[in-house]
């Protein structure tokens, strides 16, 4: 595509580094992230300052952890609409268990993790056993969890937000892990950024360098064929649903220990933002294609736009409209690039 | 002759409503290319799936390497040494070539891919297939169809396959790519592998095949024929000939001396067929005989307006139809029962009565809303006329047998009170025993004054059913006359003669 010389035989052609780069799914998101950064850096005063950067990096990080997990699932050909509410569910679990029932905080965190993984496994199990689309199955679990977060929490503690979290014994220990900050060049960086980077690196490495990564591409791209050659389709898909639930747990903990509270409606409405970030990062809705780094970049774009809009003095309610335009734009560009790539064969 | 590597005896596979395989025998030896020949619907695809372990046969036995084999799933077949390369190449576009080759049996240690190892092994396989230019690290989606086929073969070799089943491998290739494919197949044969090669192109079978087995109606009708020497006429007769001779209801009343209802004049579509003219009177059945690819289906679909004619006219009852308009054709009283009932004709998950009333909905609707009870009773009546069994208008069409599905399509056009019925392969997927019923029904409809056009690749069927027959070869009508004055051999002779005269004899025989 971008190589200047026309190779004599496409099969023996060595593709140049530029052409190879352009074929990566995350390239569009990388360019878009640079454009968004430059735009807000040049048009606003605060965006490119250390304080500004720490704000949008923090927003990007929690969205990004989820977006990366959701991207893996989408490459595997499935959706998880319960991913957003999972972040609230795990935080509330820890909050209720510790503040109301006085359970040890570490035990509560482990219980929340176990519950999250169980819900993830249940999602996967239902999808694989019933053959229903994951969109429907996880829409169901989404609403069930949403109801539990509101009704059950209210039933137990009489209100819809956790209070007194910081008085829980040993609160400081997990706070170091999930809620601390550190200084880099004048910017206060939240530990969630480290989690975000770590999750992205691990996910990329799984996708590119492990057997499980092959399986994820295979079950998303050609499920029937994968089964025929012996890919453990069932295990792979359940593992993917458990991965998004696991990410939901991480983000639930990050939110809980950063703010010392969590509300019953935490995470609701975020599930689509994760999908948008994954798609902006190059994932196809049909599965079998995408990248973890792309999804992380998609989240970075989201975080920058999310903070850039108020910095510019615009009404922050425009955010959703901008996101919609970004999603459509990303899909159209991805579509166009893929068509060109196919024609170039 | 070496001992058989793979031997299938009396394989039977039944699906609800149809017996797809009804006693298939197949013997494959090491170091040979064994061709499997048969028309569409003869059971080739089902047999492939049995070999691949995707279907388990209901009866019969499979012996591989002298041992009884039972393939519970595709992996069991792979483990036994049978690899299948499907027509729609089942590779994962998003993975690299090497990853595709080793998918499911990755070279890894503790779950971590050993990329350089698998790339090296993939390269060795690709080199051994004569295609060193395919880079193992390349994204598979960017390869051509021919390249993907090579990757599929490398995958088969990576599993130490002894038998490689190839389902119409040339269908996705350009002519010069076919040459490359054949070179690879010859190398595989020389190295002692057995290839089961499925195709309906006789020319290819002659070039690459050693021996062949012919399937018809789910049965082996001839086995172990020499692929190169068996005369074409014999092969075609085996594929198209009727084993169980069905009863064809002959005309009982003389044809009324009426004006033709359907007149087709000089119809042509560039690159498909040319200069097709015929007329059908009320009560008359006209048959189009010819092999697959001759242009029969294209002709009826053009008459129906589903394809737009480039030249010529279609006239119904004196009125010329607008070209390429199905609406105009249906309004004038034409009805088509297409070749692919399941994909083109029926809504499989809907009730029988819904399928019947589909073409007549305006009649049952007022202000855009359908009147369900009227629709239901009228449809029920039509389904009784054609004797759909069981007599249950609410039954889902998918659960009916092939023959009864065909009757549903016929009932649809009866309800529409159509006057000209175009039937494309009316007995495809219909059990041999149930065919006479369809024949009787078609004859009854004609006796009631319908003009009927029947298309079939089963020459006996066309001759037995119709009053007049047109023989189509290579997009041209090469013969036309009363069916009683010609027999199947004559029809084949005329088709073959026209094939030989057109110097680019494709040999497309099924």
Automatic annotation (TrEMBL), chain A:
<dbReference type="InterPro" id="IPR001851">
    <property type="entry name" value="ABC_transp_permease"/>
</dbReference>
<feature type="transmembrane region" description="Helical">
    <location>
        <begin position="27"/>
        <end position="44"/>
    </location>
</feature>
<feature type="transmembrane region" description="Helical">
    <location>
        <begin position="134"/>
        <end position="157"/>
    </location>
</feature>
<comment type="function">
    <text>Part of the binding-protein-dependent transport system for D-xylose. Probably responsible for the translocation of the substrate across the membrane.</text>
</comment>
<keyword id="KW-0812">Transmembrane</keyword>
<keyword id="KW-0472">Membrane</keyword>
<dbReference type="Pfam" id="PF02653">
    <property type="entry name" value="BPD_transp_2"/>
</dbReference>
<keyword id="KW-0813">Transport</keyword>
<feature type="transmembrane region" description="Helical">
    <location>
        <begin position="184"/>
        <end position="207"/>
    </location>
</feature>
<feature type="transmembrane region" description="Helical">
    <location>
        <begin position="81"/>
        <end position="98"/>
    </location>
</feature>
<protein>
    <recommendedName>
        <fullName>Xylose transport system permease protein XylH</fullName>
    </recommendedName>
</protein>
<feature type="transmembrane region" description="Helical">
    <location>
        <begin position="317"/>
        <end position="337"/>
    </location>
</feature>
<keyword id="KW-0762">Sugar transport</keyword>
<keyword id="KW-1133">Transmembrane helix</keyword>
<feature type="transmembrane region" description="Helical">
    <location>
        <begin position="272"/>
        <end position="305"/>
    </location>
</feature>
<keyword id="KW-0997">Cell inner membrane</keyword>
<keyword id="KW-1003">Cell membrane</keyword>
<feature type="transmembrane region" description="Helical">
    <location>
        <begin position="238"/>
        <end position="260"/>
    </location>
</feature>
<feature type="transmembrane region" description="Helical">
    <location>
        <begin position="105"/>
        <end position="128"/>
    </location>
</feature>
<feature type="transmembrane region" description="Helical">
    <location>
        <begin position="56"/>
        <end position="75"/>
    </location>
</feature>
Automatic annotation (TrEMBL), chain B:
<dbReference type="GO" id="GO:0016887">
    <property type="term" value="F:ATP hydrolysis activity"/>
</dbReference>
<keyword id="KW-0067">ATP-binding</keyword>
<feature type="domain" description="ABC transporter">
    <location>
        <begin position="256"/>
        <end position="499"/>
    </location>
</feature>
<dbReference type="InterPro" id="IPR050107">
    <property type="entry name" value="ABC_carbohydrate_import_ATPase"/>
</dbReference>
<dbReference type="InterPro" id="IPR003593">
    <property type="entry name" value="AAA+_ATPase"/>
</dbReference>
<protein>
    <submittedName>
        <fullName>Sugar ABC transporter ATP-binding protein</fullName>
    </submittedName>
</protein>
<keyword id="KW-0677">Repeat</keyword>
<dbReference type="Pfam" id="PF00005">
    <property type="entry name" value="ABC_tran"/>
</dbReference>
<keyword id="KW-0547">Nucleotide-binding</keyword>
<dbReference type="GO" id="GO:0005524">
    <property type="term" value="F:ATP binding"/>
</dbReference>
<feature type="domain" description="ABC transporter">
    <location>
        <begin position="6"/>
        <end position="242"/>
    </location>
</feature>
<dbReference type="InterPro" id="IPR017871">
    <property type="entry name" value="ABC_transporter-like_CS"/>
</dbReference>
<keyword id="KW-0813">Transport</keyword>
<dbReference type="InterPro" id="IPR027417">
    <property type="entry name" value="P-loop_NTPase"/>
</dbReference>
<dbReference type="InterPro" id="IPR003439">
    <property type="entry name" value="ABC_transporter-like_ATP-bd"/>
</dbReference>
């Amino acid at each position: 595509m971008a190589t200047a010389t026309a190779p004599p035989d496409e099969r023996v052609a060595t593709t140049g580094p530029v052409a190879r780069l352009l074929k990566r799914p995350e390239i569009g998101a990388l360019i878009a992230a640079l454009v968004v950064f430059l735009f807000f850096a040049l048009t606003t005063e605060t965006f490119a300052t250390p304080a500004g950067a720490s704000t949008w990096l923090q927003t990007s990080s929690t969205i990004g952890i989820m977006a990366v997990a959701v991207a893996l699932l989408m490459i595997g050909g499935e959706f998880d609409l319960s991913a957003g509410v999972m972040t609230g569910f795990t935080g509330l679990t820890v909050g209720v268990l510790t503040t109301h029932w006085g359970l040890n905080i570490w035990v509560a965190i482990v219980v929340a993790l176990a519950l999250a993984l169980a819900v993830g496994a249940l999602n996967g199990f239902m999808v694989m056993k019933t053959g229903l689309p994951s969109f429907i199955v996880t829409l169901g679990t989404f609403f069930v969890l949403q109801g539990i977060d509101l009704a059950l929490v209210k039933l137990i503690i009489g209100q819809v937000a956790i209070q007194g979290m910081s008085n829980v014994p040993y609160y400081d220990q997990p706070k170091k892990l999930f809620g601390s900050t550190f200084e880099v060049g004048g910017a206060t960086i939240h530990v969630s950024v480290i989690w975000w980077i770590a999750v992205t690196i691990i996910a990329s490495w799984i996708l590119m360098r492990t057997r499980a990564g092959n399986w994820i591409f295979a079950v998303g791209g050609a499920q029937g064929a994968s089964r025929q050659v012996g890919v453990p389709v069932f295990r792979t898909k359940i593992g993917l649903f458990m991965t998004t639930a696991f990410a939901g747990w991480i983000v639930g903990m990050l939110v809980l220990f950063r703010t010392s509270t969590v509300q019953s409606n935490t995470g609701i409405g975020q599930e689509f933002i994760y999908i948008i970030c994954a798609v902006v990062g190059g994932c196809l809705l049909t599965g079998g294609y995408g990248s973890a780094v792309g999804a992380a970049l998609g989240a970075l774009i989201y975080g920058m736009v999310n903070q850039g809009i108020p910095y510019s003095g615009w009404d922050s309610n425009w955010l959703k409209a901008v996101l919609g335009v970004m999603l459509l734009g990303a899909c159209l560009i991805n579509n166009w690039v893929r068509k060109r790539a196919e024609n170039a064969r | 002759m070496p001992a058989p590597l793979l031997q299938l005896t009396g394989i039977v596979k039944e699906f609800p409503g149809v017996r797809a395989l009804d006693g298939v025998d197949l013997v494959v030896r090491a170091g040979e290319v064994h061709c499997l020949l048969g028309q569409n619907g003869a059971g080739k695809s089902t047999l492939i799936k049995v070999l691949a372990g995707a279907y388990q046969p209901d009866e019969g036995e499979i012996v591989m390497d002298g041992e009884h084999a039972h393939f519970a799933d595709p992996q069991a077949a792979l483990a036994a040494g049978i690899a299948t390369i499907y027509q729609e190449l089942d590779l994962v576009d998003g993975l690299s070539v090497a990853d595709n080759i080793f998918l499911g049996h990755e070279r890894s240690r503790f779950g971590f891919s050993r990329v350089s190892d698998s790339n090296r092994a993939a390269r060795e396989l690709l080199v051994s297939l004569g295609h060193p230019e395919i880079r193992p690290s390349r994204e598979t989606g960017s390869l051509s169809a021919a390249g993907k086929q090579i990757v599929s073969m490398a995958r088969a070799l990576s599993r130490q396959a002894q038998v490689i089943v190839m389902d119409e491998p040339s269908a996705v290739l350009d002519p010069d790519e076919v040459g490359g494919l054949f070179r690879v197949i010859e190398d595989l044969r020389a190295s002692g592998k057995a290839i089961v090669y499925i195709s309906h192109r006789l020319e290819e079978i002659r070039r690459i095949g050693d021996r062949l087995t012919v399937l018809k109606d789910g049965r082996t009708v001839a086995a172990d024929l020499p692929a190169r020497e068996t005369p074409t006429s014999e092969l075609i007769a085996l594929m198209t000939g009727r084993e169980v001779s069905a009863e064809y209801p002959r005309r009982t009343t003389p044809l009324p001396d009426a004006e033709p209802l359907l007149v087709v004049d000089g119809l042509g579509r560039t690159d498909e067929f040319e200069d097709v003219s015929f007329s059908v009177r009320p009560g008359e059945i006209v048959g189009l005989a010819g092999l697959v690819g001759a242009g029969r289906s294209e002709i009826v679909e053009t008459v129906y307006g589903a394809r737009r004619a480039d030249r010529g006219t279609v006239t119904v009852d004196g009125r010329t139809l607008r070209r390429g308009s199905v609406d105009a054709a249906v309004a004038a009283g034409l009805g088509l029962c297409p070749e692919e009932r399941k994909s083109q004709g029926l809504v499989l998950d809907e009730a029988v009565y819904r399928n019947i009333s589909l073409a007549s909905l305006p009649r049952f609707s007022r202000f855009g809303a359908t009147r369900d009870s009227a629709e239901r009773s009228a449809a029920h009546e039509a389904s009784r006329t054609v004797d759909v069994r069981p007599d249950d208008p609410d039954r889902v069409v998918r659960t009916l047998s092939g023959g009864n599905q065909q009757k549903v399509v016929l009932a649809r056009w009866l309800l529409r009170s159509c006057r000209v019925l175009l039937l494309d392969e009316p007995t495809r997927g219909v059990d041999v025993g149930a065919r006479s019923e369809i024949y009787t029904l078609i004859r009854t409809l004609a006796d009631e004054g319908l003009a009927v056009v029947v298309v079939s690749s089963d020459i006996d069927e066309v001759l037995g059913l119709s009053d007049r027959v047109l023989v189509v070869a290579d997009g041209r009508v090469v013969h036309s006359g009363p069916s009683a004055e010609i027999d199947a051999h004559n029809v084949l002779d005329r088709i073959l003669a026209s094939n030989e005269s057109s110097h680019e004899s494709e040999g497309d025989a099924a």
